Amino acid sequence: DLQICQHRAPTCCTKKMEESYQAAVRRERTQSIQALNFELKYMIVGHITAFQEAFESLLRFAENRTSSLFETAYRPMAKEAAEPVKELFTDISLYILGAETTVESAVLRFFDSLFPLVYSRLINPGITDLSEDYTECLRLTRQDINPFGHYSKNMVTELSKSLWASRMLSQALSLGIEVINTTEHAALTKECSRALVKMQYCPHCQGLTLIRPCVGYCLNVMRGCLASVSELDAQWREYISTLEYLANEMAASHDLEIALSGIWSSINEAILHAQLNGPQLSATVDKVCGQPKQQEGNLSSANIVPVKEVTEAPKFVMAHASLSNKRREFISYMKRSRTFYASVAERLCDGDLVMRDSSTCWNGEDVV
């Protein structure tokens, strides 16, 4: 009553053993594909971690630099500006990691929070009563009177370009892991598990436990079994090309490092622009929001010191070099895996499974 290992000669197999063999080949096929995938998956997971660490390092550097700008050049508002600065960099970090947010909303939210501080601490330092209503009015007025000129929009444009490539690369790496995990657990068809049993275990039914399948026979069986996996070949090659494109974008016009390190400068230019246009802004704000209480003898803004370059260069250079090296190393490795899905059958038949240097092998029917 054997269904798979039928043979003219006497047999030492039973139907129950055939069923055990089918369970064994399913398990072995999954394990062998997992073993093939392991290195590729390990590389991608390792680089997801490395990229995220480099992103975080650059973000921390840019955030510290921006905080230092307020502490050294705009001391009257440094304490209150700390929260908006922190929020801005948290939003940027979430955006890179794929959160449903935009760079524009993060940057404009920051400038909305910044304007009441700039207006009450730098432009009109005599304001004593900064009620919630008045603060909210200043926030809303920012969108209409555009106190920061083109600097806020420029910052959105610069960051959007560079952060987009980083966000896409981050998402693409996660997609790669998903694809690999899916191929590991692709179900075997009934025909495939029967063909694998015939190739690997039917010789055992005649006591031939040391004989191995012929190379050509193994390749035919494996290609049949892995037809659905090898269909991924074209898409995988396309995926590798996309990774390469994103990595090049990050290194060229969308350089994340340059954009992040320039945030403090954009904010500084925006604040200086608002200060230069202080009288016009005050006139417009008074019309829209009314006049707040002023302290006698308007305070001068003499305690505002000229902005200096905030030096944290060594840390930045290290993070920049780390990200650039990781990018190059990763793309070089991924390019070598371009044919990964086209060659799965060959790699599964290469090794202990088949008889390489022997005059005899199993062809599915007999020893040849």
TrEMBL record:
InterPro entries xref list: Glypican, Glypican_CS
Keyword Glycoprotein: yes
Subcellular location: Cell membrane
Keywords: Cell membrane, Glycoprotein, GPI-anchor, Heparan sulfate, Lipoprotein, Membrane, Proteoglycan, Signal
One Gene Ontology cellular component annotation held by this UniProt entry: plasma membrane
Topology class, membrane: Lipid-anchor; GPI-anchor
GO annotation, biological process: cell migration; positive regulation of canonical Wnt signaling pathway; regulation of protein localization to membrane
Pfam families to which the protein is assigned, alphabetical: Glypican (PF01153)
Predominant location: membrane
Function: Cell surface proteoglycan.
Homology family: Belongs to the glypican family.
Protein name as it appears in the record: GPC5 protein
Record gene name: Gpc5
